[in-house]
Amino acid sequence: MKIIIDTDPGQDDAITILLALASPEIELLGVTTVAGNVSVGQTTANAIRTLDLAGRADIPVHAGAARPLVAAGVTAAHVHGATGFEGADLPPPSRSADKGHAVDFMIETIMRHEPGSITICAIGPLTNLALALRQAPAIVGRLARIVLMGGAFSEVGNISCAAEFNFFVDPHAAAIVCASGVPLTVIPLDVTHRLHTSVARLARFRALGNRIGNIVADWLTFEKRFEAEKYGTDGGPLHDPNTVAWLLAPDLYQGRMVNLRVETQGELTMGASVVDWWGIGDLPKNALFLRTVDADGVYELLFERLARLS
Ligand code: BDR
Ligand code: CA
């Protein structure tokens, strides 16, 4: 399956890219970057550093939006560190980004391929995707699916009391994507908060026997320091890799089709996911919203795949 990863690396974003590269079922057509965890300059450098790690200089990287559509923009340097990659010591990027804006790359790539052949894996704020949908509405009928990490139902919020980070940073973009009509799979905090980066799991990454296993363990050890304390769990959550894991092994997840909208007006609730889980409104079901996960199964998949990278 052909995918584009739209991302703001971020340690968990980088692990998502590595999981895709380690999986022969997936053809990664390109990586597009957006401001989110850190600035777009830094997320672009980090995307290239991730591809460098896997020896994949052949995969294009296109830099995208430097700020949200309307909102002021916030980062998550308090979670991911000033570079977005704190925890592991990586060399600087081997190259600059490819020419052309991320939004143009997305549109051109989607329009050039067979209808229904491309899936977007969106693991940062949804600014690029919203811009692409506005600029070229024809992509709606050409995409197979958007699989995104964002939102929350019972876990509610991780950057504000009411909202998950990716939706909060660019709520207007998230609202556009949710209303787009493209088949949508949503992986919210309800899932990602079940995937604790426990001490035992970090040890399994270290035991993979390759450089990447150690780097992944170092990255997650850094994130865990902040989040395990915050949530009182054995390790922090693991967010973005669930998008690619769902594409590879959907049976590890359960959810249901719901109507999903994103709050763009609320003073206290900006970016909140409004999920009609109980079918209260007579509203169109626009998203497969996942709620539960076989956490051990996802980690086994990660161990098995990342071990393949030299
Ligand atoms: C999301 O926010 C970012 O910090 C992570 O990379 C993930 O995409 C989780 O709320
Ligand atoms: Ca991310």
Automatic annotation (TrEMBL):
One of its GO terms (molecular function) is purine nucleosidase activity. Signal peptide: none annotated. GO terms for cellular component: cytosol. One of its GO terms (biological process) is purine nucleoside catabolic process. Pfam families: IU_nuc_hydro. Keywords: Hydrolase. This is Nucleoside hydrolase. It comes from Neoasaia chiangmaiensis.
